[in-house]
Amino acid sequence: MKRVLSLVLALVLTLTLAACGDSSAKWQEQYDLGVKYLDEGKYEEAILAFTAAIELDPRRPEAFIGRGDAGARLNDLTAAQADYQANPMVKGFLEGYQTMDTIAALNFGLVIATTLRSLGVEKKNDLIHYTTRAGLAAGAILSAVYLMLSYMGMKSSAVYAIPENGAVVLRLIVKQLFGDVGAVLLAAIFVIACFNTCVGLIASVGEYFHELLPRLPYPAIAAFFALMSMLLANIGLADILRLSVPVLNAIYPIAIILIVVEFLPGRFQRTSVWRLSILFTAIQSIPAALPFGPLSTLMNALPLSSLGFGWLLPALIGIGAGLLM
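-> structure tokens emitted (325 positions)
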């Protein structure tokens, strides 16, 4: 099963790289131009570029969101709200899953389960019980944190110009309240929070690839991912988000299906259901998020694509086909 998963992962990465290399798509050209103008502060030009992208393919929500961001920074809140309201559910999904919380949770679940086994918890039901308790506790704390951040963002919108990301908002708030000491404190909090996340991700990914490639020592694999993470971090948050959006949009439906199928009743827990649901979801989500020419157009024409749920029908078909096999 691990070999199959590894082959699927390699295929996904290959398709992703091949798709990213196709820069000739007109939509992608206009969208990238809009992002470029947005980063440069040329908001009127960005609106024109995003509008051109919308006219080429109105089913792709990224251009609507980009045009809304540009309008908001011009303080044209009416136009910006119209673009956000055109795809409210999609915006929530895009910005929610760009945090990688759900994708990362799959890795952290492995870390928690491995830690519990090292403490002597071996029974499946006990693992589920303790992992669920840990997840509920973490979810409650994170919900409180996100509510407070939302409140801060709402209140600060009347004081500061709309920045490019939430980290800038936090920096402005703490600096105004606590001065330079607050900026140092915020930096320390970011370091601690990101350090915990990095340790968990590097540990889980390192263990996974060490099991696949036992000849490579675990410390070497962990060091490689740590080094690559540090190098990529220097790109900057805004550029990281811009580059990661297409890939995350391709991956997050697969992560959702992995979680949903796990909670389905026992008769759905078949290998065929798992494989076909993931396969059918990937067939839609990857071309829909990345420029594959006519294939992307076809996949974005599926029902619910305009809401960002074009992968839902293929996933249901995959689950149904898996039950019949």
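Residues 1-24 have pLDDT under 50 and may be disordered.
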